[in-house]
Amino acid sequence: MRRYWHPIAASAQLPQHGTRPVRILGESLVLYRDRSGRLGLVEEHCPHRRGGMVFGIPEEAGIRCAYHGWLFDGTGRCLEQPYEEIVEPGSTFKDRVRIGAYRVEELGGLIFAYLGPEPAPLLPRWDFFVDEGLIREIGVAVIPCNWLQCIENGVDGSHVMNLHGRLSKYVLERLGRPDLRRDIRGPNSLWWEVYEFGVLRCHTRGGRPGEGEPVAVRAPIIFPYLDRQPDDSMQIRVPMDDTHTLHIWYYTFGAEGRAELGIQEELPQESRRVPVHEVPVPKLDEAGKIPWELLDNNSGQDLVMWHSQGNIADRTEEHLGRGDGGVILFRKFLEEQIKIVEEGGAPINTFRDPEANRFIDTTVGKPEEFFARLSGSGVNRTLGARKYSPVYREATRRIEGEKALSRPIS
To answer: How far is CA 167 from CA 189, 319, 407, in A?
Structure first.
């Protein structure tokens, strides 16, 4: 995973000069934006007396430790040591001290970090990050479990009918609204293939396995962490450490979506203006009470299934069946990429040709709507974490009225 660029924050979470703590790939770091607008990512403690750099002072170029004023640039070089320079003018002590620092770049409303060996690959310019014809919105949450439990959901097509169908109906019953219905017509037959960019595509058929004609194609996973949804939104899952995952919902709105939802923002959308919102993670409270009100949407249902497996799922206790073909294929593909790195090679989707990286088209065929909508009119807020999206909430308020926001969604 250190061969890849990982999103660590939304640009809107650090729009002006300041600092923000970050946990990524098992390391606790400090993200900062200096007074010139440049981003940096450094280790959490100053190498002098171990003061916390999250309290650092952003300068025109770099960040200054609040404890004794040592100043560091984005590469980790120490530029100033105020007291040392007073007592020993011309001191070269600063030239022998560095703070750990990593590469960081900004794209499409997200801030990315690279923590791997040099030379670093290019930050992939996937189409949904660089298309200037899109308006974007970002949701974030920290899931208390291992990354693999989260990313495998994207290739687990057999969960849809039960988790987002039967459970949805049960949740609505528990919330006192059994009159609201959700019709999920899940596929009876699934098979998976690997395409360009490590895209794991799911094909579905009506009828029993091997029977009927293909009725839908999904392109859920762009290796290693992008999950492209049927509505052209993304779910991005990033390993913070062995037992925590940063989950990002990345919504994109083209001309048609902006018209339907009444989005008026002008194009192109500046990176720091892409709005960001927090998404709650359903958990049992201290009395063991289930938060049913957080489980009436796809993401709430998904999140609770991921972390209820435990911080790190014990896969020796699994019993995989016919519906787990995508999970099996993804694990094999992951092992193949690990072996490539072990043998000194570059894993898939590590780009080095600037021309090929200008605009990476991930279109692999337009997937049909995978989830049936509730019959009738209204804004569909069940997919992903739309329930908490300011864009979808405002559209619901405008189209269905304020009361629609207080009832369970279906």
So the answer is: 21, 22, 17
Range with lowest mean pLDDT among 28-37, 130-139, 293-302, 371-380: 371-380
pTM: 0.93
Q: Which of 72-86, 111-125, 334-348, 357-371 has the lowest mean pLDDT?
A: 357-371
Q: Which residues of 72-94 are buried (b: 16+ CB within 10 A; e: fewer)?
A: bbbebebeebeebeeeeeeeeeb
Both tokens of 162, joined, read 């039960």
| pLDDT for residue 174 | 97
Burial 205-229 (b: 16+ CB within 10 A, else e): beeeeeeeeeebbbbbbbbbbbbbb
Question: Residue 259: which residues within 8 A CB-CB, separation 6 or more?
Answer: none
Strands 276-278 and 135-143: parallel
What is the Rg, in whole angstroms, of the alpha carbon atoms belonging to the chain?
23
Q: Determine the Cα–Cα distance for residues 137 and 275; give it in Å rounded to an integer.
A: 5
pLDDT in tens, 282-314: 999 999 999 999 999 999 999 999 999 999 999
Average pLDDT over residues 214-238: 80
The structure tokens listed for 355 are: 């021309």
- Secondary structure letter of residue 77 according to DSSP: B
